[in-house]
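Reviewers asked in the last cycle whether our approach scales beyond single polypeptides. To address this, we selected a multi-component target totalling 339 residues and predicted its structure end to end. The input consisted of the following lines:
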Amino acid sequence: MRVLGIETSCDETGVAIYDTETGLLGHCLHSQIELHAAYGGVVPELASRDHIRRLPLLLKQVLSETGLSAGDIDGVAYTAGPGLAGALLVGASVAEAFALSAGVPALPVHHLEGHLLSPLLSANPPQFPFVALLVSGGHTQLMRVTDVGDYELLGESLDDAAGEAFDKTAKLLGLGYPGGPQLAALAEGGVAGKFRLPRPMLHSGDLDFSFSGLKTAVLNCVSGGSWRGEQAADLAADFQEAVVDVLCAKSMSALKQSGLNALVVAGGVGANRRLRERLDEAARRRRCRVYYPEPALCTDNGAMIAFAGALRLAVGERGDGPAIRIRPRWVLSELKPPH
Ligand code: KG4
Ligand code: ZN
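The resulting structure, written as C-alpha cells, was:
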C-alpha cells in the first residue's frame, strides 16, 4: 500500500510517500525558518498561509521525484494534532480533498505518534516494547511503548518542554530563532560547570520534568548585562548540560523501572549532539541501546506521518471522513491500537 503523508502542524511543510512493501519512496520538506526569523518565533497566521502556498508545490515535487501519479496513491495520512489550529487545517483540508478526489481513504495521525515511530524507519529499527523519550518544542514525555497505539505515559514536563526551554534561553542570550540548534552550536565552544545552574526535579523520585526554573536561573545570570563571546558560550554549555543531565537521568530511571533495555529518542531536541553522547554513554553502562531517527527525520517531516498512517491504514483503519477534523490539543496515551 502506498501512503501519502502530509505534515503541517507548525513551521515545516512535509510531504512523503511510504510504501508498506518497499519502505520510504521519497519525502520533501520546506522549513519556514526564514519566514519567522524576523519575529523571533513562529507567527501562526504566517505559518498557515505559507503551508497553503507550499503544500501543492511539494505534492507535485514528491510525485515527480518518485515517478508516481495521484492514481498510484492508496491512502493519505495527515497530522490532525497536536499543533497550531490554522496550520493543521491546511494539511487536513488538502489531505481530505486529495483522498476524496483519488477515491482513497484519508486518516488523521497524531503528530507525536509520528515522532515516536520514526526510528522504525531506520536501517536497524528497535523492537517493541521500548521506552520513548519524546523531546520536541511542545512536549517532553517519557512513554512506555508496548506496540503501535499502546502508549503509557510514564512522566512529562510540568511546565516548559525541553525544546521550549532551549528556545527561550537562546532568546535570553540574544540568539535568533529557532533557538535550540543555535544555543547548541554556541555551547559547543563553551565549558560547562561555571554557573552552577539547577537540575530541576532531578531527585523528585518520579519521571516528571520541569524546565522553566532553569530558564529563570539563566535570566538571573544575564540580567543587567549583555552576554557575548566566551561567557555566553560557557553559560549556553552549562544550560545544555543541565537539561541533558535531567533528560539522561530520567530516561535511565524509566528503563530501570520498566525493565526494558531499548530507548527511542524522538523529536527536535533528539538532534542535540551532547544529549546523544550522554544517552549513549549512560545506556551502554546499563547494557541498553538507544535508537534515533535518521538525522533528516528528527525534526518535523512528512515521512513519519506517512509511516505512522500506513501502519494503521494497512490493517484497515479508516478516518470518519470526508470530514476535516483537527485536534490542536490531543493526548498521545488516548490512542488505541490500529483497528
Ligand atoms: O520536533 P520538532 O521539530 O517540532 C515540534 O514538534 O515541536 O522540535 C522542535 C524543537 C525546537 O524547540 C528546537 O529548538 C529544538 O527542537 N531543537 C533543538 C536542536 N534541534 C532542534 N534543541 C536542542 N538542540 C538541537 N540541536
Ligand atoms: Zn514535532
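The first strand starts at residue 2 and ends at 7. We regard this as preliminary and will revisit it once experimental data from Aim 1 are available.
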